[in-house]
Amino acid sequence: MRSLILGFVAGAAFLQTRAALPAGWHIGACLLAAVALLLAVRGPLRATLAGALAGFAWAAFIAQLALAPELAKADEGRDIDVVGTVAKLPHDFGQGVRFQFRVENVLTDAAQVPPTLALSWYRAEGDRLQLRPGERWRLTLRLQRPHGNANPHGFDYEAWLLGQGIRATGYVRAASSNRRLDDFVVTPGHLVERSRDVLRTRIQQALGDEPYAGVIVALVVGDQRGIEQPDWDVFNRTGVSHLVAISGLHITMVAGLAALALSWLWRRSFFTGAQLPLLLPAQKVAALGGALAALLYVLLAGFGVPAQRTLYMLAVVAAALWLGRLTSVSHILCLALGLVVLIDPWAVLWPGFWLSFGAVGVILYAGLGRSSTASGWRATLALAARTQYAVTLGLVPLTLLLFSQVSLVGPLANAVAIPVVSFVVTPLALVGSLLPAPLAAPVLWCAHLALEWLALALGWLAALPLAVWSAPAPPPPLFALALLGTAWMLAPRGWPQRWTGAAAWLPLFLLQPASPAPGRFTVTAFDVGQGMALLVETARHRLLYDAGPQYAPGQDAGSRVILPYLRARGIRRLDTLVVSHSDLDHVGGALTLLDALAIDNVKSSLGPGHRVVAAATAHRQCVAGQRWEWDGVVFEMLQPTAASYEDSGLKANARSCTLRISAQGRAILLAADIEAAQEAALVASAPDLLRADVLLAPHHGSGTSSTPAFLAAVKPSIGVFQVGHRNRYRHPKREVYERYGELAIERLRTDASGAITFEFGTGIATGEYRRDHSRYWYDR
Predict the structure, then answer these.
(1) What is d(CA 566, CA 581) in angstroms, rounded to the nearest whole number?
(2) Other C-beta atoms within 10 Å of 376: how many?
(3) pLDDT greater at residue 516 or residue 649
(4) How many percent of the chain have pLDDT more than 90?
(5) CA torsion through residues 695, 699, 701, 705, sign
(6) Chain centroid to CA 134: how far?
(7) Residue 515 DSSP symbol
(8) How far is CA 624 from the centre of its chain?
(9) Rg (CA), the chain
């Protein structure tokens, strides 16, 4: 059975790496082959192969069902009237509300709208917009097909939408027809979501604007969207982020308390004359009550993977008790693993899946041959210490693979945080959220106070210089070697020289970021939406040109796109950050990067009072004529002129830092947002310096740039348009885009290609993330 389930999970995971789904007859053939293997062959290998075929076929079948409802391309960007219900817990993000919407009826003729939508409703000035789960609304919408930024080591928004059953996104239009039709539509799903909303509202009303109210909400109803990014940074650096979600430990605690209470009441029914234990043993009643309590808590938690894993394990234990067939813990873990993937084949794409099951697997493996008859608090502490040691050690390779960093203070932080959060904060938060309002506030305040004290200690640990070790994400051979070494270190007692397994970790910690050879350079144009951000790398130096846009308060391209990429590559410092000008789509992520990375110097056209200038350790204005060389690669600043800083009437675009980078006769020109006047000035003053093989299209391909004279002077073979998908500026303009095509310039767009990479040497090698990392869920 275990081999069959592990094969099933492997087959489902393999399907998620495919660029296209198999045809229907291929799926049928896989299922027939799986049945034939099970009937004709014996042994664990047979079961594993049969499971892999079945898992691949099942995941493909579910994916086809999920992809079937789609928004017609003709319906993108037009007003569509619909009636439906608020399906999930809404999130207020300051400027409005984000929510999932279940469509019941499409009022616009001939429009094809998927059944579930992810919507934003932006708040008008003075508007008190409030939505609650289960409400029925008539709305006018503007929709688009699922699309997200596509970057190496970045979050795959399109895969997440598919896993949630969402096949279109959009926003609510300001229209007089928008109105609430019913306050509550009764369905099981709406009842659960309305309950979550009631509990969240109670907590928010009791705690108000207290800094960790969002953490309390996360512990009670699993909604983590209220936790601020600085708090996440502390939790991640100290390795306790798993505690601010509804984890397996919390669910087991709730199930255990419910089971103990039911068992106590059931056994004492003799005193009432009912004699219930004669009808049904108290042990079975306790198992059933614990499983039902776990189910209720998991539903309130939003049904995340760690919560599902614990629920299924508890359900299997309860079923085994009822049937009198207790089985091994490894069987229970495998059954939970299979159920998670059976219900959600996309679960294998997310770190929480691997960390959750990996942690339990490590505990089981480390416990082999270590049974103990000792009891008492000392034995309990020793067991807890051994378990924490095993999990910390066992998950190091996986954590480096998934996050490219390991918290060195994690063991100490968890030793303090686990008991505080699990046995103080969480019980108080749960009890406080259920009590009547006058009694709820003091209990929730106590929970928040304990969390505040814990956060102070965690903040001190997170601020330590060696709190986190960062390294590049290991390639598969090094990861496999590290797993082998970890298994050696955690082997049962009597295993020879267990400490020597640490040698297998050395390649992980000695791994250095890949770099081009001297005289060569690479450029990565990130897919940041409507904005600019490019990483330039030479043999020993790195420069970031612009920092992308700000998406919302506290959210920008620096935290969402650039930092995850740099961390996965093991890059912890930049030699130079060039901020071309002050527009928010170029400077939006700069402060985040300056706070998170060691950046030696900043070059920009920003004024002396700008926050980025103040935050930089060293700043210098961009001025035409600046020139430097790194590892055989030449950098030349072509704009702005020194005199331009004296002209207060110039727009920020006119002072864009224009940078040319060249080596071995190959060059790229980064022109930021210069417009026709600056292009003409460059053609007149420095025509010999403009020639480049690759041109970053000025001003995202707007109608005010990329003049014929400028393109004739640059003579690029490739033009790159860093633009947002269906952006409101309609960049690139059709006439400009066609102008590049008429000049036989290859056109690449980040909204269509994802991140674009150029490797400059004697030639130019081009990579496109959506092409090279193609997946079946990408919109085509």
Answers:
(1) 23
(2) 8
(3) 516
(4) 68
(5) negative
(6) 27
(7) -
(8) 40
(9) 29
Q: Dmax of the chain from CA atoms?
A: 103
| Mean pLDDT within 152-167 | 95
Distance (Å, rounded) from C-alpha 694 to C-alpha 748? Answer: 10
Asked whether the beta carbons of 657 and 636 are under 8 A apart, the reply is: no
> Helix, strand, coil shares of the chain as percentages rounded to 5?
50, 15, 35
555: three-class secondary structure by DSSP: strand
DSSP E strands in 563-711: the ranges are 573-579, 598-604, 619-621, 627-630, 633-639, 658-663, 666-670, 694-696
In this structure, what token pair is assigned to residue 253?
């605690």
pTM above 0.90, yes or no: yes
* Local structure of 544: helix, strand or coil: strand
Which residues are paired to 101 by β-bridges?
A: 86, 117
CB atoms within 10 A of CB 51: 26
On the CB side of 390, CA atoms within 13 Å amount to 23
Token readout for 332 is: 């229970």
Secondary structure tally for the chain: helices H, strands E: 31, 26
Round to whole Å and give the CA distance between 616 and 608.
11
Given a cut of 80, whether residue 372 has pLDDT beyond it is no
| CA angle in degrees (0–180, nearest 5) for 41-44-46 | 35
In whole angstroms, what is the distance from residue 515 CA to residue 542 CA? 10
CA quadruple 552, 554, 559, 562: dihedral positive or negative? positive
pLDDT tens-digit profile of 211-250?
999 999 999 998 999 999 899 999 999 999 888 877 777 7
Closest CA to 743 of 770, 713, 715: 715
Query: What are 428's two structure tokens?
Result: 């108080």
Would you say 308 and 245 are in contact if contact means Cβ atoms under 8 Å apart?
no
**In the numeric block, which tokens belong to residue 695?**
């041109």
In order, the DSSP letters of 440-487 are HHHHHHHHHHHHHHHHHHHHHHHTSTTSEEE-PPPPHHHHHHHHHHHH
CB neighbour list of residue 422: distance below 8 Å, 6 or more residues apart: 243, 249, 250, 253
Q: Which helix (H) or strand (E) holds 545?
A: strand 542-545
Average pLDDT of the residues in 78-104: 94
d(CA 372, CA 108): 69
Give the count of beta carbons closer than 10 Å to the beta carbon of residue 679: 25
How many residues in total does the chain contain? 780
Residue 477: pLDDT over 90:
yes
DSSP state letters, 245-279: S--HHHHHHHHHHHHHHHHHHHHGGGGGT--HHHH
Q: What pLDDT, on the 0 to 100 scale, is given for residue 310?
A: 80
Task: Report how far residue 398's alpha carbon sits from residue 538's, in angstroms, rounded to the nearest whole number.
Answer: 30
423-452: string of b/e by CB count within 10 Å (b at 16+)? ebbbbbbbebbebeeeebbebbebbbebbe
Quick: pLDDT tens for 478-501: 999 999 999 999 888 778 888 888
Return the residue matching tokens 């664990």: 44
- The pLDDT value recorded for residue 124 is 79
Which residue spans within 156-242 are E strands per DSSP? Answer: 169-172, 179-182
- Checking if the pLDDT of 367 tops 80, the result is no
Residue 121: Cβ-neighbour burial (10 angstroms; 0-12, 13-18, 19+): buried
Q: Sheet harboring 619-621: ordered strands across?
A: 619-621, 598-604, 573-579, 542-545, 534-537, 521-525, 756-760, 764-768
